Amino acid sequence: MVTQDERPILATVGVTKSFGGIRAVDRCSLSIGRGTTTGLIGPNGAGKTTLFNLIVGLYAPDEGTIALLGTRIDGLPPNEIVHMGLAKSFQIPREFRRLTVLENLLVAHPRHPGEHPVAALLGRRRLWDYEETLRTKALDVLSVVELSPLADAFASDLSGGQKKLLELARALMTDPQVVLLDEPIAGVNPTLTRKLLSVIEDLRAGGMTFFMIEHDMDVVMEHCDRVIVMHQGHSIADGIPEEVRRNETVLDAYLGG
Amino acid sequence: MIALRRVGGVLKRTRFDLFVYAALLVFFGVTLLGGTLNTADVAYFGAYVMIWGLLALALNLQWGQTGLFNAGIAAFWGVGAYAAAMVVTAPALPGAGIPGHWGIDQRVFPTVAGVSTAFFVAVIVAAAAAAFLAFVLGIPILRLRADYFAIATLGLSEIVMRVFVKNLQGVTGGVYGFGGVPRPFEFGFDVWKTELSYFALLAVVLVIAFILLDRMSRSPWGRVLRTVREDEDAAQALGKDTYLLKLQSFVFGAALMGISGAFFAFWLRGVYPPDTQFTAVDTFAVWVMVIIGGSGNNRGALLGAWIYLFLEYVTRRAPDWFHLTGDLGIRIFYFRLMAIGIVLILIVLFRPQGLVPEEKGVARRPRWTW
Q1: Do A110 and B369 make contact, defined as CB atoms within 8 angstroms?
Q2: Do A116 and B221 touch (CB under 8 A)?
C-alpha cells in the first residue's frame, strides 16, 4: 500500500503562511501518492486547516510551491484549481441553504455550459439535455451517499451528519482526482460514520486519492494508508500508521512535551 | 398570534399575487365606472407602476438571486433616463438663464409606422449607458462583500447623480434638467389615448422583460447565482468564478434599470436631477418593493411594486376622494410613510420571505426550447 516511490499526485515544498506574527504553516513539505488515503493529524492549531486552504487556493502561500500532478497550482484562484481535479469539503459544512439537495449537487459540476447569462437567455434545447444528463449523474451520486430520499429537501433541513455527506457528494460531482476532507466524520453518528468511510473506501479502490484531516485515531489507524503529523506549522512525522503511533516526536507534540 | 400564523400558513399555499391583482382590478374598475377616476388617470398610474416594476425585477436579479446589496439603483435609473432623454430631444444651446443640454437632431431618425425610431434607439442607448456604468463601477467594487458593497454603491450613485449629472451644465441641463421629452405615441388633446397607448406599450415591455428574466432565473445560470448569494466561498471552492458571475448579474440588472429609466423619462416628459428625481429615496423604495413582494421571486418583486405604489397613490388622492380638508387633507399623503413602515414591519415579523417567497428548486426546463 505504501506508494512513496511513485510520482506524487500532490506535493508541497516549503510552504509557509503567516497571519500577523503567527506562522500558521511553516516550511511544510509533504507529498501524497496516487490512489491512497492519507491522514493529516496534529494538535489543535498545528496548521492543518490552513494547509488545506493553501492547497485549494483559498489563501496564497507566502513562500513555497504546491504542485498537483506536477503542475504548480500555488497562487491560482480556487475555481481554476477545482477544474484541475482537486476538490475539498469544508470542516463545517457550507451547504447552499436555500437550494435543494439535488441543486447543491447540480451546481457543483464544473464548466456547466448553461451557467452563462447568454446561454440562459437563449435556453437552447442542447443545454437542457446536458442538464438532464447531469441530473442523472447527480441522482447517482446521491444514491451513493444514500441521500436520494432527500433530493428535493432544502439543504438547510438536513441533519449535521447528512450535511457532511452532502459535502462529500458535492466534492464528488466535480469529478476530482484528489479530495481533501476536513474532519469528514466529526459530529457524525456511528452509523453514518461507517457509511461515509465505506463510501470513501470504495472510491479510493476506484483510484481516487484522499487526503483527510481527522482527529479520531481509530479511524486514522484503520482507514489511512499513510499518516502525516503536523505540529507548529510543519510536518514532523510521515509514515504508515503503525510507525507514526510509536514515534517519540509525535507523542511529545500531542502530550505537550 | 396563533391565528395570524394560521393565516400566514394559508397564504403560503396560495398564489397571493393573484388576489392582490384581482383586488386592484376591482378597485380601479369601480372607481372608473363610478367616475371618480378617468381612463387617463388609471393608465398614467399603471404605466408608472410598471416602470418601477422593471426596477424591482432588476433588483430581484441583483439582490434576490445574487445577493448583491445594490444601494445605488438611482444612478443606473437616472443615467438611463438622461441618456434616453438626450436621444429623443433636439440639442439646446446655453442661453440667457438656460444651461442647455445635449440632444440629437430628430431628423436623423426615420419614422416607422408613425413612430420615430428614436425611441427604440433611446431604450438601447439607455440600457447600454447604465450597463457601462455598472461595468466600470463593478470592476473595483464587486470585490467588496455585503454591506461594504452597499456603501460603495450608495456613495458612487450619489456622486454620479449629484456631482456629475447635476453639474454638467451644457450636457444635462444642470440643476434645471430639461423637459420637452416626447412620448412614442402622441394624440394631442385626446389625453386618454396618449396615456392608454403608453400604458399598453409598457405592459408589453414588462411582459417581455418578465418572461426573459424568469427564463434566466430558472436556468443553470440563475441557480449558480443563488450559490453566490448563499455562500460565496463555498461557490468558489466548487470552481465557480464568483467575481464574473456577480459582474454579469450586476451589469444585466443595471441594463434593465437603464431601460426603466428611459421609459420613466418618456413618461415624465423630462428629466430632473436630485433632489427632484433619482435620489436615494427612490433606491430604498425599490428595496421595500422587493422585500414586501418576496426577494428571489420575480412575481413577488412585481407584486411589491404594485402594493407600494398603490399605498402611495391612495394617500395622494385621498383628500380629493373623501373631501378631506384642513390638516388631515394635507398630511394624509405623509401617512403613506407610516403605512409602508407598518406593512414592512408586519412582513418582516410574520413573513420574512415576502408575500410571494422564492420557490423551491427554481431551475427548471422552460416549456419552449429550440
Answers
A1: no
A2: yes
Task: Give the pLDDT of residue B278.
Answer: 94
- Residue ranges in chain B modelled with pLDDT below 70: 1-14
Pair A102, A81 in one domain: no
Q: Which of A58, A79, A92, A177 to mutate to test the interface with B (most CBs of B within 10 A)?
A: A79
Chain A: give the shortest CA distance to residue B150, in Å: 22
pLDDT tens per residue, range A208-238: 999 999 888 888 888 899 999 998 888 888 8
pLDDT at A4 over 50: no
| B358 and A CB contact within 8 Å | yes
Q: Pseudo-torsion of CA B235, A57, A12, A223, nearest 10°?
A: -20
Q: How sure is the predictor about A255, in pLDDT bands with cuts at 50, 70 and 90?
A: low
Q: What is the pLDDT of residues A159-192, one digit of tens each?
A: 888 888 898 899 888 888 999 998 888 878 888 8
Report in angstroms the alpha-carbon separations of B156 from B7, B304, B317. 42, 26, 35
CATH class, B43-289 region: mainly alpha
Determine contact, residues A233/A49, Cβ cutoff 8 Å: no
**What cell numbers appear for B55 in the block?**
426596477
State whether A15 and A90 are in the same domain.
yes
Residue A120 covered by a domain: yes
Computed on alpha carbons and rounded to an integer, the radius of gyration of chain A in Å comes to: 19
Q: Residue A255 to residues A43, A202, B130: CA-CA distances in angstroms?
A: 9, 34, 63
Determine whether the interchain pair B369/A98 forms a contact, defined as Cβ–Cβ distance below 8 Å. no
Which CATH number do you get for residue A203?
3.40.50.300
Q: How many domains does chain A have?
A: 2
Does B237 contact A117 at a Cβ distance shorter than 8 Å?
Answer: no
Q: Which residues of chain B make contact with A141, given a CB cutoff of 8 A?
A: none
Does residue A170 form part of some domain?
A: no
Choose one of A157, A184, A202: the last residue of a domain.
Answer: A157
Treating both helix axes as pointing N-terminal to C-terminal, what angle do B298-321 and B191-217 enclose, rounded to 10 degrees?
Answer: 150
Residues A110 and A233 in one domain: no
Burial class (CB in 10 A: 0-12, 13-18, 19+), B341: exposed
How many Å lie between the alpha carbon of A160 and the closest alpha carbon of chain B? 17
B-interface mutation test, from A86, A99, A102, most B Cβ less than 10 A away: A99
- The domain containing residue A148 runs over which residues? 97-157
